[in-house]
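Continued from yesterday's entry.
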Amino acid sequence: MTWFQWLISVYEYIRPVLDVVLLAFILYKGYELLEKTQALPLVKGTGFLFLVYGIAWLFNLTTLRWVLTIIAPGLFIAIAIVFQPELRKIVMRLGQTEFFKPNAAAHIGKLDAVVTAAELLSEKRRGMLAVFPRKINLKNIIDTGTRINAEISSSLIVAIFEFDGPLHDGAIVIQSGKIISAGCFLPLSERMDIRKNFGTRHRASLGMAEQSDAVILIVSEETGAISLAYDSKLYYDLSSAEVTRKLMELLDKGSRKESDQKELTKDEREVIVD
């Protein structure tokens, strides 16, 4: 037996295992993507239709099968229209995902300066938005602002947001241990179940969390509350220690399993939008 024949025999032996493992990985990643884009209702609705059709076929319910066959194309078109925003987010995430994530370790080493700036701005009732990219490329967001490529420092962040300058109303993007861009515009959330007293910053942070896997740090100009937005959810009024810990966990998630993370505290469980 030649080495090539030996490789073929080994491949034939491991092929079923490889097939199952790859399929399980694709299903897991697909479910994770659907969960983070809030598209699970789309899957549940489609699954319900298939379940009803299966019951009709199993029990030979000819009238129900005929009705479903007639209305099925229209239902799928209606589902596509109703869930168009979620479908668009899924396509965007698939197209923007990077195989090599930004250097999260550089983020973690300078988080104290960012959180300190958030505390100072919170005391002065000055708003702040800081975006931490993870796997999804945010070049389109970065290009909406002014590129500064500056080293992270609390004084620089405070200077950007403390006064009503040209970069005050936008967000800063922090990547690879630097403030890449300032004055960036974030997409506003299209959801209708957001608290009415939330302003543009919270809506923009939630919109960014819906359309990417970024982590967004928010300081409210009205209340001074420090919050985090990620995975299509907004966690309001966290302490500085909680913010630091969650940022370290989320930005370092690539090197640890999600199950290894600490349990959320009571304050962090207060999900404003879910």
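--- second protein ---
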Amino acid sequence: MLRNYRRLLSLAVLLTISATFSTKISAQDEGDAWAKKKSSWLLLPPGERTKVQDFSEDYKNYLNIARSALGSTREVIRRARAAGFTEFTKPEQVKPGARLLIPNRDRSLILAMIGTDPIVDGSRVVGTHQDSPHIELKARPIYPAEGFALFKTKYYGGIKKYQWSNLPLALAGRIDTTDGRTVDISIGLNPGEPVFVIPDAAPHSDTELRNRTYTNVLQGEELDPVIGSIPGEKSSVAVEVTQFLMSTYKIKEEDLVSAELALVPATHPEDVGFDRGLIGAYGQDDRVSSYCAARAIIDLKGTPKFTALAYLSNFEEMGSVNNTGAGSQFLNSTIARLIGAQRGPAYNDLDLRRALHNSQVISADANDSLNPIFPSTSEATNAARLGYGVTIKLYGEGFDAPSEYVAKMRGLLDRNGIPWQTHTYKVDFGGGGTIGGFMSREDMEVIDFGVPLLSMHSPFEMSSKVDVWNFYKTMAAFFAQ
């Protein structure tokens, strides 16, 4: 009897402990900060939804024009000049409230608003990149193939090659001639203009191709679009196309060696979904950040305490190389020029070192989103989702900002009512990086921010309108500190 009583007592104790533990777990679940996160759409103040839609329309207009780093630079400069920015050419321009424009070889630029404090005491920098994955022409691009004329190409940036077939493509860029002319090229973006298409094999005859793997459905040397099909009486289609280009643009065939011509999707930005909550467009990685940074500094009211710099760079998709990429000295040189204008003959290299050390930076770039069809490619606990706010990117491996700077930037977001989330890739399965490392190397304080995209690096990426809006608000608040 006593033994049975002890057993019953022990069971009662276990049940009590279990019930208490379950209650604690349940309460913990209910209080979980991440479980309570709502869609940013539900957090918008009354009347702000209209602002989000209006902002998105302007963003789509920019994307429709800015099809390359060249196009983005040109459009941002046009907008900046209309807002009162002038090109920085002389020291006396550098005074509090000045709105300055510093272009770099037509492919990158810096917009600056001079603050009340000396630049050596620090600045607020948003760094982005304007380039996106695309297909480029080789130096000798035109060739005949089975009665057609095709472009010989090479791809730029990380793409899934099969996504670029059967797609209307436009040709954009420039040709520079030995007599000093620059010929701007844009074919396929306006109604009535021809487009170019990389042809796929028909399902009736592609048996020999069906064993190709996911990433090799099309190979690099097969990304060649049809550019002509009518031969001349005594010449091939390729010769006819070449002669057409020579006569239309008043160039020689050899001028194509000194050309920067890219094939980009000819599709236009569109709203996605019955509710129009998403923007679908080519080039959102990373012209979403470039647009938000430029718009934030152009819209900045009054004179900030710290000098604000929107740095739109190039070549990030290839490692930020060349003299217009973030790996160059363009940003350092620009800051040195601005300090030199303030300090005059007293300027020395230690002033630049001090200014860089005191600078705070948002390295802005798009990031991958949790995909509703392929959720297993993300680690759901730490994956960013469309519509849930600005992304604090925590990729590890030494890329993350110091914890105190992360905390400071979280505070900035919270004080301004800006929803945020985090993103970390699955270990051993994914990764990414952007221009922040180049600025960290210069002793600047850097954090990586972004907005999530669906179908990232595809010819038609999707972003949430509310995320883009909140990214703009983040940059505006950062500049205004």
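The longest strand covers residues 134-145. The domain at 134-265 is CATH 2.30.250.10 (Aminopeptidase i, Domain 2). Will compare against the first tomorrow.
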